Automatic annotation (TrEMBL):
Belongs to the adaptor complexes medium subunit family. PROSITE patterns: CLAT_ADAPTOR_M_1, MHD. GO terms for biological process: intracellular protein transport; vesicle-mediated transport. It is a peripheral membrane protein. One of its GO terms (cellular component) is clathrin-coated vesicle membrane. It is found in: Cytoplasmic vesicle, Clathrin-coated vesicle membrane; Golgi apparatus. Subunit of clathrin-associated adaptor protein complex 1 that plays a role in protein sorting in the trans-Golgi network (TGN) and endosomes. The AP complexes mediate the recruitment of clathrin to membranes and the recognition of sorting signals within the cytosolic tails of transmembrane cargo molecules. Signal peptide: none annotated. The lineage of its organism: Eukaryota, Metazoa, Ecdysozoa, Arthropoda, Hexapoda. The keyword tRNA processing does not apply. This is AP-1 complex subunit mu-1. Residues 167-420 form the MHD domain.
Length: 422
């Protein structure tokens, strides 16, 4: 991928900042962008790629700003968009917010960033942690220009050399979100698990880490197919992971960035039993009142406990005079959202709780029950994963031979979790 130029425009198409990387285009070509975009909008055929006779525009819009790349060559367009989004992310991490005012206030820093992010149109260092080591916003101070950190000149661009900690620790969180939709009879219409492995690394030197999971492909390949395993799908890794090693022997081998980062994400399209099931009985008395009986049941093992559970029940927009009764948790009416929220701080597995609610209904016309929105459930279950994924080992190797403490934690939480009431 090689870009000829990058522009940042305001909402009217005025150039706020630009950088010509290859000298192979006329910078005045950007004047064609806004008329072409308006033309496509009027035709209803807007795309993030606009073609002209002399070049191709690829752009993203953020806070009424257009961040545009210009190229004359046949490039990998997916990489172009990854770079544009990375450029936006870096500027947000530098300036807290990316808008016209922050562009005008920091144009010197932005030019420095654009020079480091791309070299002759080719992406270079795009990690803001590394960039902040030698591109600072304190430009008014007269200082000796620092030597670029090792991360810019060696193969591990996401980690600097010389990092030291008194206590070497690694924290690893496996967090799974359950997306689920079920009908009133309990039949699951749609379900999937979206997982992410988050890490917080406080390690000295240049350590190499090796992570082993109960990956089905690995365990079957090594003759341990009977061990409980998980078949990971749609796996995506941080750039620090050696993909060739994973493809060869399913080993997750990496030199980690310092601090917090997402090591990998995965998705499982699998039939998930509702972890928290809600039964609802709704009795509507025309022109007078509506009564709710809500039963919440935890359908996971007794040794686990769901924390901060919220059951969000839609109610008619004109409901009034709320009255609640429950032996567990608390209930509040949120009229601006037309819902009641039943909050249960701690919900052990294998338990069942009931809440009753009563509302007045002044409306003359009863709500059509078929248009009733689904009940939503929010929760977090620590020390538990729906998929059954497990960290089998986390090995830390560093030439100085220090001992490090790895901490592993599992959390399952709700994603888009909806239960229809009829």
């Amino acid at each position: 991928m090689s870009l000829s130029a990058v522009f940042i425009l305001d909402v009217k198409g005025k150039v706020l900042i630009s950088r010509n990387y290859r000298g192979d285009i006329d910078m005045g070509v950007i004047e064609k962008f806004m008329p072409l975009l308006i033309e496509k909008e009027e035709e209803g055929t807007v795309t993030p790629i606009l073609l002209t006779d002399s070049c191709t525009f690829a752009y993203v819009k953020y806070n009424n700003l257009y961040i545009i790349s210009v190229t004359r060559k046949n490039v990998n367009i997916a990489l172009v968009f990854v770079f544009l989004h990375k450029l936006v992310q870096v500027m947000i991490e530098y300036f807290k917010e990316l808008e016209e005012e922050s562009i005008r206030d920091n144009f010197v820093t932005i030019y420095e960033l654009m020079d480091e992010l791309l070299d002759f149109g080719f992406p270079q260092t795009t990690d803001s942690k590394i960039l902040k080591e030698y591109i600072t916003q304190e430009a008014h101070k007269l200082e000796i220009i620092p030597v670029p950190p090792m991360a810019v000149t060696n193969a591990v661009s996401w980690r600097s050399a010389g990092i030291k900690y008194k206590k070497n620790e690694v924290f690893l969180d496996v967090i799974e979100s359950v997306n689920l939709m079920a009908n009133a009879t309990g039949h699951v219409l749609r379900s999937e698990i979206v997982g992410v492995v988050k890490m917080k690394v406080h390690l000295s030197g240049m350590p190499e880490l090796r992570l082993g999971l109960n990956d089905k492909v690995l365990l079957e390949g090594t003759g341990r197919g009977k061990v409980k395993s998980v078949e990971l799908e749609d796996v995506k890794f941080h750039q620090c992971v050696r993909i060739s090693r994973f493809e060869d022997d399913r080993t997750i081998f990496f030199v980690p960035p310092d601090g917090e980062f997402d090591l990998m994400s995965y998705r499982l399209n699998t039939q998930v039993k509702p972890l928290i099931w809600i039964e609802s009985v709704i009795e509507r008395h025309a022109h007078s009142r509506v009564e709710y009986m809500i039963k919440a049941k935890s359908q996971f093992k007794r040794r686990s406990t769901a924390n901060n559970v919220e059951v969000i029940i839609p109610v008619p927009a004109d409901a009034d005079s709320p009255n609640f009764k429950t032996g567990v948790g608390s209930v509040k009416y949120v009229p601006e959202q037309s819902v009641i929220i039943w909050s249960i701080k701690s919900f052990p597995g294998g338990k069942e709780f009931i809440m009753r609610a009563h509302f007045g209904l002044p409306s003359v016309v009863a709500e059509d029950s078929e248009g009733r929105p689904p009940i939503q459930v929010k929760f977090e279950i620590p020390y538990f994963t729906t998929s059954g994924i497990q960290v089998r080992y986390l090995k830390i190797m560093e030439k100085s031979g220090y001992q490090a403490l790895p901490w592993v934690r599992y959390i399952t939480q709700n994603g888009d979790y909806q239960l229809r009431t009829n």
